[in-house]
Amino acid sequence: MSDQHDLRIRGGRVVSTFTGEEFAADVLVRDDRISAVLPPGTPAEAREEIDATGMLVVPGFVDAHMHIESAFLTPQEFAAVTLARGTTTVLADPHEIVNVAGRDAMRWMIEAGQETAQTQLWGVPSCVPALEGLEEAGAALHADDIAEMLRWPSVIALGEVMDYRAVVGGDRRMHDITAVARAQGVILDGHCPNLTGSELSAYLATGVDSDHTKNRTEVVLEKARLGMTMMLQEKCLTEEVATALLALPQLPPLCLVTDDLAADHIVDKGHLDHIARVAVAAGFPAHVVLRALTWTPAQRLRLHDRGVVSPGKRADLVLLRGELAAFDPALVLVGGRVAGRDGAPVRPATADADTVVPLGSRLDVEPQEADAFRWRVDLPDGLHTFRAMRVNQRDTYTEAGEIDLTVHGGEVLWEGHTTLVRVRNRYGRPGTVFAPLLGRDLADGAVASTYAHDSHNLLTIGTSRAAMATAAATVVADGGGVAVVRGPAGETVAARMPLPVGGVLSARPARDVADQAAAVRAALEAWGWLHLNPFMSVSTLTLAVSPALKITDRSLVDVVHRESVGATVTG
């Protein structure tokens, strides 16, 4: 082997994810590996040099739980913009697009990811549909399907086991799915908000051993002490949680994850680098944050070749400017090659709509007209009490509420009295469900979306039938996506984001999609839909495994009891 190295990164300070120390050192690279970490000025020949004076050299960031579809981007475009922010490795669970188009969609995502410089690893979605029997998706995966898909290239995990009520209740389908994953020795990812006590034990006993959801602080500690890897996304990073974890006799392994970030957020605020800054603001020391971005998630993913700046490890490196706590990427290297500079990709992906045609939009619905938004019921004329969904401005939890509405001639006269939610099956099957929505003070208008977790049926929310029809028709004309309209009849299309790839992704360049997403976000907020993450707040109204009352194309769902509930509270 030649003594010459390919690259020398000189003048910087390396941050050790083992000790938390910063120390002056030159980092040398040969091929895609770190070949040496030497005191500054130590003689060593290299073909190229990078001057890292004033910078910190840290390992590439590893995202152990996320969904590429949440960015509305193809894997290639996602890689381009997130690599520039320091995210060199991800474990992606493609349960959005797999619920739409099944095995073919996952195979396409894997193949697209292999074209990128980013290490994109995959989990097979465990809940397709998310709640069997209470919703209709575009596909269904059973234990045999999952057993085969777990053997596909780049697949290392069973995706988040969201139907945790089925798991703790001994449901045969979920038992078989977790059993085949455990038999193959893959990682089993979890999703179990505020699960505690004997039910948490039952869940852990299946081999599922992580959680990324928002929990009460005492539940975070309970899960951590039982050996569950706690994955903290932005909404989990509170001062209370940080204080409680840091007060423990020993800090448990922690992973910082993104879960769901839209394209505009990534382009404008960042990816894991943004989550890192949020964690610092919550009270976590910067060296603890760095370890939660690198070494711990690498170990979680069984990637023993990364997560620390050390000889023999993969040369996925981030050069940070300023103090560590700023997590400000100046230069990103993947396998020793520059992939990002100053937050921008060095080699942007080339979006090509032709590559995604095989998936299509899979949008099979009738024309969207105002009559389709008449809420018809089998009730006598008069005032009736209806079950409603109540939302908040903080998270995606929904509560059951009540509202009195008049019925006349078999139709609920809701306009002028409440906001209405409608879900329409988009896969050529019958299925339309209505519910009142409480907790928002909205102007005249509507939003429609085919990005609606996890079955991604056509979701419409509005203040009038006419506005809802306009929003839904706009989305259908776009082949899927999100549209916000304003005015009593929806006469103004305030923003639209076409997502013709399965109704959940765009084939456009990331900057274009980011601009569209930002416009939709602004339009939602101007309409009155105020929330930390408006996209997630809207799109999870249909997530029937997330507490407490959700709506699908079949019914309103009591998530805790996993059962359909009627819209009428009293007759």
Protein described:
This protein has 571 residues and is an alpha/beta fold. It is 25% helix and 28% strand. Residues 353-357 have low confidence and may be disordered.
Which properties best describe this structure?
single chain; 571 residues; alpha/beta; ten-stranded mixed β-sheet; seven-stranded mixed β-sheet; 32 strands; 28% strand
The counted number of beta strands is 32
Number of helices: 15
Measured as a percent range, the helix fraction is 25-40%
What ranges have pLDDT less than 50 throughout 5 or more consecutive residues? 353-357
- Percent strand equals 25-35%
What's the main sheet like? 10 strands, mixed
- Rg result: 24 Å
Mean pLDDT rating = 95
Distance between the termini: 83 Å
Structural class: alpha/beta
Secondary-structure map:
Blueprint: E1 5-10, E2 13-15, E3 22-24, E4 26-30, E5 33-38, E6 46-51, E7 55-59, E8 61-66, H1 75-83, E9 87-92, H2 95-113, E10 119-124, H3 143-149, E11 155-161, H4 164-168, H5 172-183, E12 187-190, H6 197-204, E13 210-211, H7 217-225, E14 229-232, H8 239-246, E15 254-256, H9 263-268, H10 272-282, H11 286-293, H12 295-300, E16 317-321, E17 328-334, E18 337-341, E19 344-345, E20 382-390, E21 399-408, E22 411-413, E23 419-424, E24 432-438, E25 445-449, E26 458-462, H13 465-477, E27 481-486, E28 492-498, H14 510-527, H15 534-539, E29 549-551, E30 556-558, E31 563-565, E32 568-570
Parallel strand pairs: 1-6, 2-7, 8-9, 9-10, 10-11, 11-12, 13-14, 14-15, 20-24
Antiparallel strand pairs: 1-4, 2-3, 4-5, 7-16, 16-17, 17-18, 18-19, 20-21, 20-32, 21-22, 23-24, 23-26, 25-26, 25-27, 27-28, 29-30, 30-31
Helix pairs in contact: 3-5, 7-8, 10-11
